[in-house]
Amino acid sequence: MQANRIMLQSPGRIGIEPVTLGKPGAGEVLIEMRYSTISPGTELAWLHGLPNTPGEWPTPAGYCSCGHVREVGEGVEHVRVGDAVVTGASHASAAIAVAAQVAPLPAGLDLADARPYRLASIALQGVRKAQVQLGDAVAVLGLGVIGNLAGQIARAAGATRVVGIDPVDFRRHIATRCGYDAVVPSAVEALTHVASSGGFDVVIEATGAPEVVNDALHVARTFGRVVLLGSSRGETTGVNFYRDVHRKGVTILGAHDMTRASHEDIPPRFTARTDTRVVLELLAAGRIDGRPLISDTISWRDAAQAYDRLHARRENLMTISLDWSA
């Protein structure tokens, strides 16, 4: 089978290349894609060789796709030909995926609404590691796609108050639509929403900007938990560990997507397979909403334009989905 896939070809340059796919082997699935969704933070960082990225080209782009099963290999039982599924495959018109990394959509959820599933899964594993509880006040720094979803998931997990922090107006507006209790442009203003407790029980840093880590530590209350969900693109300077960590008894949690349980769920770390199932159920039940986060849907043939638009930041874009049927 002939397919096309999106490649990060060189710094700042996107290309499309043909690829020949064979038959799925044992434990594999052939999927014809309907949509794939750009992860703006990670993919733009890799494309432009920012700090803490591999800096290697060419490499396939993306990791959040959905489509229909066209063939299954020997031993695959949980999905069948024709099933609508999600997969962590890169941006491509079709792909062969390990069946264990493919999940069928629950009843009532269509492919269009499942598009940001992997970004929601990344957000979920960060919220899980924070061990959000009933009554917690949660601050989210950075209301991009993953930050927005982290706040929504924190509310679903029982947080009593979720405050979003972002200097960008349109992101704050979308967070309000998505159910945030309050949105503010700065960390200092966020503290006015939890004045009586002196800070937030949980602070989720989702910007990836090194300097914002200091803000996250500052707004955490005594014995609070700070989750580093965004992948920092550089080194954080000026941290006063005595004042902001040691004396307050703050717990700092690294929550990179790769720090999951590998084979079985060991709370608060769960496998990617479990987290995928959970976010699909949350989307199907309307407990979280990814629709406001897909700012535009364009043909896969215009993928380079999509990355340019996201990088330029001249439009109010959360992310862009690629349509593989167009």
Structure characterization notes:
There is one protein chain. With 326 residues, the chain is α/β, with parallel strands linked by helices. Helices cover 27% and strands 28% of the residues. The strands form three sheets. Strands 3, 5, 6, 7, 8, 15 and 16 form a seven-stranded mixed sheet that branches. It has a six-stranded parallel sheet with strand order 11-10-9-12-13-14, sandwiched between helices. A three-stranded antiparallel sheet has the order 2-1-4, with helices on one face. Strand 15, helix 10 (303-312) and strand 16 (319-323) form a beta-alpha-beta unit. The longest helix is centred in the middle third of the chain and has 14 residues, at 117-130. The chain is globular. 46% of the residues are buried.
- Alpha carbon gap, first and last residue: 18 Å
Average of pLDDT = 96
Number of helices: 10
Q: pLDDT under 50 segments (min length 5)?
A: none
Shape: globular
Amount of helix = 25-40%
Using only C-alpha atoms, the radius of gyration works out to: 20 Å
Q: Give me the strand/helix succession.
A: EEEHEEEEEHHEHEHEHEHEHEHEHE
Strands, total number: 16
Major β-sheet profile: 7 strands, mixed
Derived from helix and strand composition plus strand pairing, the structural class reads: alpha/beta
Give a summary of the structure in a few sentences.
This protein has 326 residues and is α/β, with parallel strands linked by helices. It has ten helices and 16 strands.
Outline the secondary-structure elements.
Layout: E1 2-10, E2 13-20, E3 28-37, H1 40-47, E4 59-60, E5 65-72, E6 84-87, E7 94-98, E8 102-104, H2 111-114, H3 117-130, E9 137-141, H4 145-156, E10 161-165, H5 169-177, E11 182-184, H6 187-190, E12 200-205, H7 212-219, E13 220-228, H8 241-246, E14 251-254, H9 272-285, E15 294-299, H10 303-312, E16 319-323
Helix pairs in contact: 3-4, 3-9
